[in-house]
Amino acid sequence: MTAIPLSRLLAVGRPDDAPVADGVTFARFRADVAGNAARLKGCRRGLLVAPDGYWGAVGLLALLHAGAEVTIPPNAQPGTLAALTADGAVPVGGDLGGNLGPGGAGMALAPLDPETPLTFFTSGSTGEPKRVVRTLGMLEAEALATEAVLGRLAGATARVHATVPHQHVYGLNFRLLWPLVTGRPFASAMHELWETALAALDAGSVLVTSPAHLTRLAGIAPLPPSRRPALVLSAGAPLPEPAAREAAAVFGTPVTEIFGSTETGAIAHRRREAGDPSWRPLPGVVAGRTPDGRLRVGATHVEGREHIGSDLVEMAEDGGFRVLGRADRIAKVEGKRVSLPEVEAQLRRSPLVADAAVLTLEQLCAVVVPSAEGVARLADLGAFRFGRLLRRELSTVQEPAGLPRRWRFVSRLPDGALGKRRHADIAALFEESALPEIATHRPTTPDVRAVRPLADGVELDLFIPGDLAQLDGHFPGMPIVPGVAQIDWAVMFANTHLGLGIEAAQSLQVKFRRVTVPDTLVTLALRHAPARRRLTFEYRCGDETLSSGSIGVEGIAP
Question: What GO annotations for molecular function exist for this entry (predicted)?
C-alpha cells in the first residue's frame, strides 16, 4: 500500500474499508478523529495519556487537527502528570482525561502543517527531564526511512503487535506511526505477557518489543511456521547475544535492532543474524564521530538537523558504527533510560534527604545522607523501612526502573582530593566488607495503608513494594506479582482481620483479569459467607478489577 505522510493522511485518505486496528476501518478511524477533534477544539495544550493504541492514535491526530500543542509525558505517574497539568494542559485519553469517544459531529480534516511541534521528554544530565521538541514532519520522515529498510522484511499487510507502550518515541513510531503511514493494521492492546503476545502472532506479522522482554524467553518452545512473525524489532538497549540467539530460535527469524534516541528518533538498524554486527544508518542519515569519540548524526528527522549524542563510537569499515559505551550518566535499567542525576535530584527534594548519589551495579543503587529529620526517621524505622519510604516517595515521579533497589545511609558522601565524586568510592560502599546492606530481609507482604470494615468482611488498601521477594524471576524487566502471592495474602489478611484461622486454601477458584505490578496501591476486598463456608476476595486498582476469586473454608465453623 502507498505510504502517505501523517500530515496528509486524513485529508488524502485511504479506501473506507482499509483496516486500521482490531477490525476498525479507515472510515471509522477518520470519523473518530474528526469527532474528537471537534470536541477538543479550543484545547490549548493536550497531554496524550491514552494507554490503548487505537485511542492513542485517535487522540494524537485529534489534538493535532484541533490545533492543540501536543505533549507526550515521560510516564503516567501521578506526580509527573500533576506537574505537567499545573499550567492548564489537558490529559487526553487516560484516567484523568477520559475525553475520547467514538464518532460524533466531526470537523473538516485539512492537511496538517509538517512544522507542527510535538513535545517529548528525555532523561537530562542536569537532574531534570529534558524537553525535546520534534516536528510532525520529522516523525513522518522517520517513518518513511523506517519503511525504506523494514518494508522489504514486513509484508504490506502485516499486522503490527507490541509489548512496548506508545508513550515513548520508539513505541510511538513503530507501534502507531509507521503502521498508519504505510497502511498496516496494528493491535490496539499492548501485550503485557508473552502468553498473550505469542498467541496473537501469525505468519508474516510484526512484533515491536524490547530487551526487557526478549531476555525472558527461557522455556518457551519455538513457534510453529503458522505463527512465526516476519519481523521482530527491539530497541532501548543492546540485546545480549544469548538472548538474541534464543529469540531467533523461538520466533524463527533474527531480531532486528533499532538504534536512536528521543532527540534523533530511529537512526540506525542491525539484524542479529550472528555475533555483534555494526549499526547501519537508515536512509538519509549521516553518521560520524566527533574528535572526543562521540556519535554525530545528521538527518532531516533529527532535532536541529544534527545531533551529537553521549554514545562513544568507532566507525566501521562497512560504513556503519559500533557503540563503545556512554559518555554521560544516563543508565539503561531494564531496557529503559534512567537519568542518574534526575533520581539524585528527586531524592534531594525530600525533607528526609540532605544529599544523594545514585549508580548502577547490576541494579540501581543509592547512597543517601539523611537530613536531621531523616536521621530521626532512620532511627525510628530502621534502614530497611526507611529505604522503602524513600522508594515510595520516588514512585510518584519515577517508573519502576528508576527506583533504587539497594541503599546505603552515610553521614557524608565520599569525595576525592579535588572535591570530585568518584564512582569507585561510591561503589565501594556496596562491597560485602562495607556497610551492612538494608535488603537483608526483603518483604514478602504488602504495606497496609488503610483498613475499612464491610458489612460482611473487610477492605484494605495495600501498597505493593518493588523489592518484594516474590518478584524474583517473575519476570526480569517486567515484574509482575504472582497469583499465588495474591492468594496467600488473601488468606493471611482474612485470618488477621476476620479471625478465620484458615490453614490452607481449599476449593480454590480464581480469575486474573489484569496483571498486578509492584510499586502500586491496590485495594483488597475480603468477604466471608459463613453459611456457604466461602471466603471471596477481589483486588482492585482504582475502579478496575485485577483479580478475584473464592476460597473454601471447610475447616471453619459457620
Answer: medium-chain fatty acid-CoA ligase activity
Measured distance CA(457)–CA(551) in Å, rounded: 14
Amino acid identity for residue 489 in this structure: W
298, pLDDT greater than 80: yes
> According to DSSP H, which parts of 407-502 are helical?
423-428, 483-498
Per-residue pLDDT band for 418 (boundaries 50, 70, 90) equals: very low
3-class DSSP state of 436: coil
Q: Rg (Cα) of the chain, in Å, rounded?
A: 25
CA 423 to CA 441: how far, in whole Å? 27
Given this model, what pLDDT does residue 127 score?
46
Residues 312-328, buried b or exposed e (16+ Cβ, 10 A)?
A: bbeeeeeebbebeeebe
Neighbours of 210 (CB within 10 A): 25
The reported pTM is 0.68
pLDDT digits (tens, 9 = 90+) for 30-72: 999 999 999 999 899 999 999 899 999 999 999 999 999 999 9
Identify the residue with better confidence: 170 or 192: 170
* Position 146, amino acid: T
CA–CA dist 331, 337 (Å, integer): 6
Tell how far CA 343 is from the center of its chain: 17
Q: Is 377 exposed, middle or buried (CB count within 10 Å of its CB: 0-12, 13-18, 19+)?
A: middle
In whole angstroms, give the CA distance from residue 394 to residue 39. Answer: 36
Which of 171, 132, 127 lies closest to 328, judged by CA? 127
**Cα 516 from Cα 114, distance rounded (Å):** 40
Say if CB 234 and CB 253 are below 8 A apart.
no
Q: How far apart are CA 286 and CA 460, in angstroms?
A: 57
Cβ atoms 527, 536 nearer than 8 A: yes
DSSP label at residue 112: P
For 108, half-sphere exposure in the C-beta direction (CA atoms, 13 angstrom radius) is 2
Question: Which residues contact residue 487 at a Cβ distance below 8 angstroms, ignoring those fewer than 6 apart?
Answer: 505, 508, 510, 549, 551
Name the pairing type of β-strands 45-48 and 90-92: parallel
Give the residue carrying C-alpha cell 574528535.
Answer: 291
User: Please, are residues 311 and 287 in contact by the beta-carbon 8 Å criterion?
Assistant: no
Q: Which H/E stretch holds residue 383?
A: helix 383-394
- Percent helix / strand / coil, the chain, rounded to 5: 30, 30, 40
Please report, to the nearest 10 degrees, the dihedral formed by the alpha carbons of residues 64, 116, 264, 79 taken in order.
Answer: -50
DSSP H stretches of helix in 125-239: 136-150, 169-171, 178-182, 194-200, 211-214
